[in-house]
């Protein structure tokens, strides 16, 4: 029986060896080298166009079927319940009330009936408010073959079901392992190279190398998620002497911004894999990581930030005023602190296109690992970054005005 | 998030609620959807955290009093019937409703009296039936904010009590409250226009 087994064995091992070779060449050639050099083949554009065609076809099928059966395709969630009376907004009324209280010459006016207005406004906002609409994941106009984004999916036709099954197979059996491999390779390379660069003496060469290594790491991470990022207004890109602030939707916001240029991140030192990555990063480039004890000391934070910003050779600091997803203790600290430092502020706005994959993380529904798996098994993460014009302290802008200056 | 098919049969006690509050079926359904939306963890009832998640409400000076008004004394959760009953106070009065004697049918939830009672509860937080000077000062502080001095607040409260307090017990009872608001068009101020 031996002679029967060995040719098959040989064949199997040959086949395995070949496929691993092909795999590594593909990964190396198509991902790592371009990531290091910063070029792109443009494969993603074709990929997205094909996907869009398929989605449109799928939506058309669903609409036809729905018409046949006379069902309503989507529950219109965003229709209002109440019609808000346009007499005056809450803010105006509060101002009116307080202004009369301010006038020193006249007696401040107050009526027992004044409470009615606020009462009614309060109930109207319980019933129907614009803000909570932003916090619910959007329902799409066209279906993108991900059941997680279509809450009303019903079995409508065999063709669609087959297409959906095919989509699941492709996403979980082809795309997901591929992306996980890329991510693992990327992180491993990043840690090794960053530590190596850290051993060099502090010169211009070292800074250049560390920038390259960091950028390579971020680009690999983005490619592992199949991220397609479009940058607008690149002339407003942050420079080395300030703080970059951005809105925060997902844990990967930092990576998306850092794909374009290097930033210094701020946060708490963790343990485990994340801590290892953080320590490797700080060896080659100055990031601001805090120990647990230092986190509560607001003055220490402000001092470190100020020192960092004053040094021209260091990268701009990246801050999310809404608070990070990873570290909730940062929220209170930076709300006042980041804008009191008094340097140039570079705002950035990140907007995700949810047609290819929903990047929103509902932390009450899934943990971080579940979230990352979900991201990696979507079609792609598509987003746009707008760099807004920089702002200086001179304008006496308070924090609330900054945060209201939204897109 | 979201029910698979929103139909009136999914709403608990829909017929009784419609009778009691006067909401139409369509309105009740909309309110139920909104209730489910606010109830983010699908618990079937609301807690005060769910109300606090509404950002516009936190900007409202009396936001937390309004939230308190939904909870029955001693309760920590609001189920859908209680939710609807509170909102029923704010239904505009129908114009062509004939006036009938008070004994013949129970007072509808959106009558003038009920609206006044609701507003009274917002002032009278401890529910003893009187708005004391302390309670009035608290509301004034919330509504007028930090820009008014203590003395100004006290003088406003003093004047308000003097004008309304008829039996001179240094507190405003519900009847005195009602009397002082005789001329105010309560129905207009305390009604929410529900879309058809």
From TrEMBL, chain A:
Keywords attached to this Swiss-Prot or TrEMBL record, sorted alphabetically, are:
Acyltransferase, Lipid biosynthesis, Lipid metabolism, Membrane, Phospholipid biosynthesis, Phospholipid metabolism, Transferase, Transmembrane, Transmembrane helix
The record's listing under SMART domains reads: PlsC
Whether Acetylation counts among this entry's keywords is no
Q: What is the lineage of its organism?
A: Eukaryota, Metazoa, Chordata, Craniata, Vertebrata
Q: Where in the cell is it found?
A: Membrane
Q: Name one Pfam family in it.
A: Acyltransferase
Recorded GO MF terms: acyltransferase activity
Protein's recorded name: Glycerol-3-phosphate acyltransferase 4
Q: Which CDD domains match?
A: LPLAT_LPCAT1-like (cd07991)
Its annotated pathway reads:
Phospholipid metabolism; Lipid metabolism
UniProtKB/TrEMBL annotation, chain B:
The subcellular location is: Cell membrane; Cytoplasm; Nucleus
Which PROSITE patterns does the protein's record reference?
EF_HAND_1, EF_HAND_2
Principal subcellular localization: membrane
Alphabetized InterPro entries for the sequence = Calcineurin_B_homologous, EF-hand-dom_pair, EF_Hand_1_Ca_BS, EF_hand_dom
Q: Which Pfam families does the entry link to? A: EF-hand_7
What keywords are annotated for this sequence in UniProt?
Calcium, Cell membrane, Cytoplasm, Lipoprotein, Membrane, Metal-binding, Myristate, Nucleus, Phosphoprotein, Protein transport, Repeat, Transport
Q: Does Metal-binding show up as a keyword for this record?
A: yes
Q: Which residues form the EF-hand domain?
A: 111-146, 152-187
Q: Does the keyword Nucleus apply?
A: yes
Q: Which family is this protein grouped under?
A: Belongs to the calcineurin regulatory subunit family. CHP subfamily.
What protein name is recorded for this chain? EF-hand domain-containing protein
Source organism per entry reads Ameca splendens
